[in-house]
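Format notes (please read before filing issues)

Several people have asked whether sequences and structure tokens are stored in separate files. They are not. Every record keeps both together, in the order shown below: the sequence lines, then the token lines. Line labels are part of the format and must not be stripped during preprocessing.
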Amino acid sequence: MAGPFNENKSKLKFPTKINMSTNTKKLAGKNAIVTGASKGIGAAIAKALAAEGAAVVVNYSSSREGAERVVAEIAGNGGRAAAVQANVAKKAEIERLFTETRKAFGALDILVNNAGIYEFSPLERITEEHFHRHFDLNVLGLLLMTQEAIKDFNAAGGSIINISSVVSTAAIPGSSVYTASKAAVDAVTRVLARELAGRKIRVNTVNPGMIETEGLHATGMAGGDFRKQVESQIPLGRIGQPQDIAPAVVFLASPDAGWITGESYYISGGMRANP
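Then the structure lines:
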């Protein structure tokens, strides 16, 4: 028996063409700088941003070969990237970095302050040099990079992601200077999130747990009993990889995080450092 739908089905008209954007990349048309991006977490972040359509400046301090390898991989996957050397603890070199960025891609939309140093030392061995080496790069460099970036952001604002660490809320013996520098990163992030909100600039941190990088291997902490001890405290049962961190940065850089600022994202396999 014919129902109402069958009686009227000849009158139904369906669109013959559906308009859908072919560009589904979250960061298409955006320009980004990632500091300390020649290896490790920074390299993974640079590749992930490029995969989502951003043009990326791969900053490095000394490892030109590593930075060029990251750029080549991005280009090989159809992305846009350029390697630019600069010590981001020095204002003059930061200014040159931004000049090169504008020449390569134009004004900035995304800044990832990833460059940093970590060296553990017991109280008795802390020196002025040890202190300033950490704070000049981990904190002052971040501030100087941000200072320059906000001059470059347009009226639409921008996104700043600072790479901190779970140790910012921990009490790990021998890490007092490094921990203090990362706690400062978290505090600066919260302050700048409020200070820059009126300009539509969002500022957040990503706080990784123990990540297997070249730097970790260089310290000798990537294997043996120390690694086993750390992994025994991680609910997900392993230390992280650089690619575990990159997606969180992409999210915070994207319009999906448009109402998120002043936050710290702990990416640590479930291991929150605070008691």
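For reference, the curators noted about this record: The chain has nine helices and seven strands. The chain has a mean pLDDT of 90.
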